[in-house]
Design a protein that fits this description.
5-stranded antiparallel sheet; elongated; YceD; alpha+beta; 167 residues
Length: 167
């Protein structure tokens, strides 16, 4: 979705309201995917200072837990506001994705905000214990008997130095 911000500065007398719905499944997010369509609302309203932009977006993120590799599905709701002044359109450091003609790429704006919003490390739960370093099974499932008290399972020799450091 393209919003002609430059033209809105010139002719916009009434607030603009647009429903969002677009597919971001092909977008290369860092470590996760957005498989369902992103939905939301984009508004722009003229003010005495410039144009007040409001963005609401709902996205569902899918990835694997960083500790145990279990599937993780999280919902994110973005809500952002910007005040854009006429001189911002000419600023090369302006934070919104505008092209040379002054059109705002709303889909790219949502992608940028998702990258900022979604944590770099996603977990299936805050207390995820991860995988056993000996057998590779998830510790939380109870399938791992290697790390239980009294276990006689040998520890990897390469990790023995770490135990010495703790003593």
């Amino acid at each position: 979705m393209q919003f002609d911000l430059k033209r809105f500065f010139q002719n916009g007398r009434e607030p603009y309201r647009g429903e969002l719905s677009f597919d971001l499944s092909d977008y290369d997010f860092p470590g996760y995917r957005v498989t369902n369509p992103v939905t939301g609302l984009f508004t722009a309203a003229p003010t005495m200072e410039g144009v007040q932009i409001h963005l609401e977006a709902n996205a569902q993120v899918e990835t694997e837990c960083a500790r145990c590799l279990a599937p993780v599905q999280e919902d994110y709701r973005l809500e952002r506001d910007w005040l854009v002044r006429q001189q911002d359109l000419e600023d090369e450091w302006f934070e919104l994705p505008l092209d040379e003609a002054g059109k705002l790429d709303v889909q790219e704006l949502v992608c940028e905000e998702l990258v900022v919003e979604v944590p770099a490390v996603l977990l299936c739960s805050a207390d995820c214990q991860g995988l056993c370093h000996v057998c590779g099974n998830p510790k939380a499932t109870g399938d791992c008997t290697c790390c239980q008290e009294g276990s006689t399972t040998p520890v990897d020799e390469r990790l023995a130095i770490l135990k010495q450091l703790l003593n």
